[in-house]
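COMPLEX REQUEST
Ligand: manganese (II) ion
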Amino acid sequence: MVEIPLVLTCDRKYLPYTTVCAVSAVRKTKRRILLYVLTDESVTAKERKAFLETFAPFGNVKAEIIDVSGIAPFRDSAFPQFPKIVYYRFLIPQLLEGKNVEKCIYLDSDMTVLADIGELFDTPLHGKLLGVCRDPVMAEQIGKQKKLPDGRTWLEYVQSIVKKPENYFVSACLVLNLKEIRARGQELWKKAMHMDGTNFYCPDQDILNMVFEDEVTFLPTAWCCSPPETEGASVPEAKILHVKMWTTSLHPSDDIWFRDLKFTPYYYRVRAEYLALLFERSVNNVLRPPRHGAVKSVLLFVWYFLAALAARFSGRQKR
Ligand SMILES: [Mn+2]
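STATUS: Structure written out below.
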C-alpha cells in the first residue's frame, strides 16, 4: 500500500495540539497520508473547516474528520488527565471498516513526528494484531521503585496487568493490523472496548496491555520517545517524541514543535498561552523567597522583566 492511513483523536481542547502532531507527520513523510481525525460534538463546524483547510497547502495529505459523538459509549476517568477521548482509539477498527484500510498508524496528540512515518508503517507486524513500543516511562518508574497512592509499587501494579512487566507497552503509538483484527481479532477488540477503565492508572493503555499482551510485535522505541524534561536531555535517535510540548517549558525540543505549530491557525494563540505559562512559573519561583509578599514579588518581577525586554529590544544585550 502506497498511502499511509494515520488516525488521531481529539476534542475541542486538544484540537490545536492534534493539528500540530498531524502537520509534523505530513511535513516529514514523503508518501501520501490519509489522515483521519476522530472527534466529537465539542468541535464546532467552523473549527472543523479550519482544521481541514490547514492541510490544503500540503500535496501529500487527504484529511477527513470522523465524528464519534453518539457511538462513543465512554466515560471520563477518575483521573483528570485521562478524559474519555483516550478511548476513542478503541473505535478505529469499527470506523475504518468501510474504507478498505488494511493497516493504520495511531498517534497520541501529544506527539511530534521527526522522521518519515513510512518507515514505521512498513515495519513488519509478523501476523500480530498490534505493533507497539515498550513503555520507557513505566520502566523508569519501576526502576525508581516509586509507589502509587494505594501503597503498591508500580511493579506490583504492572504485574496485576500483564504477565511480563518488561513487555508493558505505551498506547501512544500503535500500528493496527486491521486486516488481521477483522479476520480473528474481533472478540479481543470487543473485550477491550467494553472494559471499564475508571480505576486504572493508565486507563486505555492498561486495557490494551491486558487484552493484547500476546498479540503484539515490538517496534523500535525510537518511535515513542519520552525524553526527560531536564535540559540537554534530547534523544538523538528519536523518530517520534512523546512530550506535551505546550506545558513543558523550555524543553530542548520545543523549537521543533513550535516550527510545526507555525503551519496551523493556532500559532499566536498557543505561543501566547505558552508565554503566559512561562510567566506564571517564573512568578511562582519569584514568590518562593518568604521575605517578600505576593504583590511586591510580582511588581519586582514585572519591573525586571520589562527592563530585560527593553535591554533586548534596544540591542544592548543579545544572546
Ligand atoms: Mn500521550
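REMARKS: The mean pLDDT is 89. The chain is about 40% helix and 15% strand.
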